[in-house]
Amino acid sequence: MAWIWAAYMPHPPIIVPGVGGGREQEAAATLKGISGILDRIRERVPDRILLLSPHQPYASGAFAVNTARLIKGGLSMFGTGQANFELNIPVSSVDLLTEYLGSKDIPTGITESGDLSRDQGSCVPLHFLRKCYGELPEMILASPIGLDREMSVKLGEVLVSYDDGKKWGLLASGDLSHRLKPGAPAGFSPTGEKFDRTVVEALETTDPAPLMSLSPHLIREAGECGMRSALAMVGLVSKLDGGIEVLSYEGPFGVGYCNAVWAN
Length: 264
Known about the structure:
21% strand; 10 strands; Protocatechuate 4,5-dioxygenase, Chain B; 35% helix; alpha/beta; two-stranded antiparallel sheet; 8-stranded mixed sheet
């Protein structure tokens, strides 16, 4: 068994104390949910983590894998030096993974960016993961944003069979609707709440069907960035033993935050 855990985590910089300046406590349920994930994976230390971030470089129509040898940066643009990282990427492992995905007809694009400073989708989850593990495992960073819904699920399903002799964790990063209430970052839309309920349902049931039934218009109106990460995690876990445990959901700042985990 190559996969030992999979986690879905939000990435608002405001929940990092150096950014939030106390306001992170307004997302107390989210912080509790993250703590729950860390409790479940603390003793399950992977050799490598595949991190899906919607803020990694994008490749149209493809799963974009970052092949930079060194990726560094943090949340300094948000006013803190707490979440700075320097990730040495295992290039040979990247090559093996992309070759495998190609053999399974997953369209894969290669990007190369050593700058992490605009990727809160990676930095925020990694801030908490580093607190859990101390030293971060080897990391592969990728963006699923170029995939459609069907291919996002297939990505997770084919990852189940990937086995290079190492223990892997899947860190699926994503925020849900950015339009939950007036004053939200993308404005208000009544579709936001329905979209978020549907994502939570798909995670709770380990079944992508609820999300597959949504119209493209509703998804666009919801203003999300985490659907493809969620679908990839659902696809992966649907082929493994056990289900996904949803630990928290809330939208205190007008953006939906969900924490969910599967641990073998």
